[in-house]
Amino acid sequence: MVSLVTLNFADRIVIDRQTSQAIRYALKTLLEETERQRKIVRGLIEDNQQLRAELRLERNHASRQEQRANDLDIIVENIKHKIRQLEDESIANASQQHNQVKELQKDKQVRYHQQADKLQEQEETIVRLEKELCRMGLEEEERIATQKKMFRQFCKRAPRTQLDQQYCVISEVNLVDSVFFCQMLKVLSRIDSIIRSPGRAPLVMHMQRKEPPRNSAKDNDQECGFEHLPLTIELWADQLLALKNLHRSLKKLFLQLMPWHTVAVQDDKECIRVEDLQLMVDEMSEEVESEEKKSHVPSQQTLYAIVSHFQKLFDVNSLNGVYPRMNEVYTKLGEMTNAMRNLRDLLELDTAAPPGVLVNTVGKLCSLFRENVTWQVEQLLGTQDIQSIIYKLEEHDDFFPAFQALTENLLHILGVRNLTDIVPAVQQLIWKAQ
């Protein structure tokens, strides 16, 4: 039973001893409980601040990761743009090379036609020279016939003794021999000039090396300078025969390399030109080059196998899904690489550290953090049992509203604003009561 006596003259309150001890014990218990609750609140506030700091760090880390992801997207777009640019350049280079090949083929055809025209002109010149040679031969025969006729007429007019007749016959024979010799000399000189032309000088040197050595000066006086002509003509005949054999071999090789082409059957008596052989060799070389280029290009079956492998690897059903899945894998790989690089930097590891070392280090840090948090909770709540911790928190939830209401009433009754002012105000009341 609490009895209060109010004195009007001094505004004092008189409390008996039992009530005073009860109030003292209540205030002491209240202060202790307040101090303990203050420690709990302070610990909770610190934990809340720590959690907010960690949350802030996580948000910053997430923003950095998002920024890096955006940067990676930009890099991927730039790489795609460069790939498209390289593809366009390769297509342009291929078209340019194709155009250059066409121009070279056209140039080759033009040169071939020019050479053919030149050869035809040379053949026409040879035919014209042969006609002129025939005409000159006919004129020479006519002239000789005229000379013979005039000589016969002169012989008819002159006295005809047996000696004169024999002399006339011998003169006529010598004249015919001299004319034939002049003709043969012209022909041999023409052949010798053709052989000794600048384009055939190596052939003449080859024939001179094959000639036997000359021993006496008498043989030099008897030679006329055309002794190499039979050997040269014999060599030409051998070369023409070898040219026919070469043409036959090239024709077989041409049919083996390009069986879809038809080669006209050429008569053995027909003249074989070097230009035809050169044309066959050029066609075969072009065909071999085109086959080599085709061999470097992968076949349709190989490309189909590669595409099927990528579809199985990326678990897609169509070809259109391969590229998005490749981009997704590339993006995820870039994110993982950047995350591991950042973790290495934060943990101060070597850049060449394997992922296993990184995972072990992060696991150790997480273990240390969990042990530290558990120790802090145990120190704060004064127990190590999980069930006791739950009970403490439930008691705190039940006690804190009543304690808050009591504290607010004390602040209102004592006329103070802070919790720290409650104890001095109560002590002053006790001193006054005593």
From TrEMBL:
A Gene Ontology biological process term: regulation of microtubule cytoskeleton organization
Subcellular location: Cytoplasm, Cytoskeleton, Microtubule organizing center, Centrosome
Keyword Coiled coil annotated: yes
UniProt keyword terms in alphabetical order: Coiled coil, Cytoplasm, Cytoskeleton, TPR repeat
GO molecular function list: gamma-tubulin binding
Keyword Ubl conjugation among record annotations: no
Coiled coil: 45-132
One cellular component term from this protein's GO annotations in UniProt: centrosome
Known role: Plays a role in the organization of both preexisting and nascent microtubules in interphase cells. During mitosis, required for the organization and orientation of the mitotic spindle.
Record text on subunit structure and interactions: Directly interacts with tubulin-gamma; this interaction determines centrosomal localization.
Record protein name field: Centrosomal protein of 70 kDa
Organism: Varanus komodoensis (Komodo dragon)
